[in-house]
Each structure stands twice: as structure tokens, then as C-alpha cells.
Amino acid sequence: MGSGTRRRRRWVAFLGAAALSVTAGGALACPASAEPAQVDFGTHCVPPPIAGIPAIDGTTTAKITVDDATPTVGDTVTVTYTVVKPAASNPVDIDLPADIMTPTGKVALGGAQTGDLTVAGPKKNDPVPGKGAFPSFSMTGTFTVTAPGAITLSPGDYNIHTSYLLELDTPCTVSTPPAPVSETITATGGGQTNHRAISLGSASGSPGAGVTVTGTDFAPGAAVTLAGRAGAAETADRATATADAQGSFSGSLAVSDKATTGVVAYEGSVWSDDKGAGPAAYVVIDDTPLPADSQKINSSVKAGTLSMTQAGDTVELAAVDYGKGGFSRGSLQTVTVKDFRGGPAGWSLTGKVTDFTGPGGAKIDAAKLGWTPVCGTKAGSPSTCRAGSPGSVGSAGATLASAPNGTLTGGEFTADARLSLNVPAFTPPGSYSGVLTLTLT
């Protein structure tokens, strides 16, 4: 099923008999959150030994932002940790060129949900003069909401890695943890109940270095797969661990793929949103020396979203005669699904309908609406669309189309259906309307 961010999108439709129509609406927008607080906190930074200078006890200015301040339990929240003013500076007299800094760090969760979230930033910076101040930088990571209530986010330890002439680290730790709260989100219940969580011993490492992965709330005694992620796709980096009687585990994963952006853990041998946790942000520091007189050229492919659109907002089903009744038929407006996430998760498009109401309180039961789904896959798509089974839609709902989980999923798809409303013979004349809701997950 949907990943990552398992965002849910819904379209609402009105159906009627005699003069039957379908109308589609859009997803509701979430209210804007208050501006996150910019906070200051004491920091102890240790320059590389080669610099020959003592540790720096200074002040870091930072802020934390989120992509969703009002999530539901089960949602994935993307967190951005921005160090506005680092406590440390360039420890050497040599000018540092652009794009040689790789920041990593942690965000402390508190309140309704506790733990440390690893975050990592891209190798991107403005030039830094010798002994000059390090510029501002941002790091991102994600976590799955496992409990309703207020969840606080505080900036944590961070590390500045520089890759120029030598591979050097400047780790900075919070002097008196936790640092002040910069952002608070309010989670509501009603989502999935997967409480599995993982944390990493570090947010970065050299190619092939091992990272310690610890997990909680897995099934007791379960065999757990540890795997690297490059964006939303798994890499070949894998290891296994076994959960103890309390559902906790600790294992080591050697991460060699230089494109890695995160680490996941899941029960069994195939990723599942219901039995997995992560990704926890991780970056491989490429310390491979370049040949003389050469330049390294980097590129990337940015993961997109799971979305859907529909061809129109009205469907007219054919009228039936009073006294005869029978099937009022028509076609669903074509729904186009675009899965540009590039990961292992499939998707499902389902629908449910309310009773059809007419003049004087007359109604036709929701179970009377049936459909025969069809779907198509655009050439070149990694996934293949599967049509749902013919049958009643009803208030309980039914599947219109889906695509399975896989090693790499994605593509463009179209979903349609022949609709038939079974109208009883002596249904009072007039227009009847119901509400059809399509949900993509």
C-alpha cells in the first residue's frame, strides 16, 4: 500500500436515477500551522584534530518545520531541521569551496510520542573562507505518527562533514539536552496502529560502514529485515535481526550504495507498511579519491507523489420506467492515477456510495449500485493496474482498481467502470441522488 507518506485523496460524487448525475469535489485543505519558533541553545563542537584548536562552546540558532502540523495517527510527517547559525566555523585557514559540506543530525520528539529522528542534508553550501563561519544549512527526515496528542520537536546534535582535500567531521552536541521546543504538531487518532519504530546510531558513514539500527514494537521473536533506501527504492544493502520477547532488536547494516538516503526495517522479507518502520534518514559520505585532473558530476532523480484526477464531474444514468424498473446504466468518469513515488509501495483505488434519495423521502438502497471495473496501464510503467471485481459498490465499498507492491513501482493508469443502478419497479418517479466517494491510498 501507499508509503511513505500514505497520503489519502478523495473525490466525492453524486449519483441519481431518472435524472442521474455524478459531481466531483476536491480534497480539503489543512489549516496552516503557526510559524515555528527559532530557538537558541548551547552547543559543544569538537573541531577535527588536524585543526589543532580546542573545542568550541557556543550558541546554535535553529528552527524546525514540518509538512503537516495536524497529522492523523499512521501518517508520515516530513521534518526539516534548519541550522540558521552554527556554533562552529571553518576550523582551518584554507578556504572551502562550494558544495563540500554534508550535514547530518537528530531531532528530539517529546510529548505524546518520544524518540530521536535522524535527519540529513544535501552536499550543498556557499564557499567558506578560512576560519570563517559555516553557512546556514537544512536537514530532513521523516517519522510515522504512532500516538494522538501534542508532539514536540526540538533540535538535537548535528555534525558538519567537509569533503575537501581531507574528509573531516565537526560534531556538535547540545550542551543541556533537550534543546528548546521549536515546533509542536497535534496528531489525531483514527489512522493505522502500526507502532513499530527504528532509530540509527548515526546519520552518515563511509561506503560499506556499518550503522546500528535499533527497533521497538515489532512482533516478539520476528525475523526483521534491515535495508537501505535510495529515495523510495530499496538498495541491495541488507541484513537481518531478530526481535526479542518485548519486540525490540538491535542490528548492524553495512551501507555501500552511495545513493542511500535512508534505512528501513520490516518483518519478513518484503516491505509492508503494516509491518515496517522508517525510513530513517542516512547519507553515505563518498570519500573515494578522484583521479588527478578529473571532475565528479552528480545528478539525482526526485521522487514525486501518488495522485489522481478525473475526466469530468457529472454522469447521467439512463432513466427507467415507473412500474417496470430495471437497470439504470451509465459509465463512471475516467479516473487517471499517477504514481510517481518510485518506491516499493503499490496503491488501491476504492469507492463507496450512500443510499439514493428522491422525492418525499423515497430512497434506493446503496447496495443496488453495481459496477464492472476496467483499468489500463500506460506503456513503460513499472507497475500493472488490476481492475476490481464486478459487483455491488454499496455503503461498505469495493475496489475499483489497484497495483501491487513490488521492488520498484509506479506509472500512469486509467480506471473506468460500467455503472448499473437496479431500480425497483414501483419506485416513485423523480430524480434520485447518492454520494460516491473514491479514495486513493
From TrEMBL:
Keywords: Signal. InterPro entries: TAT_signal. It comes from the Bacteria. It comes from Streptomyces aurantiacus. This is Beta-xylosidase. Residues 1-29 form the signal peptide.
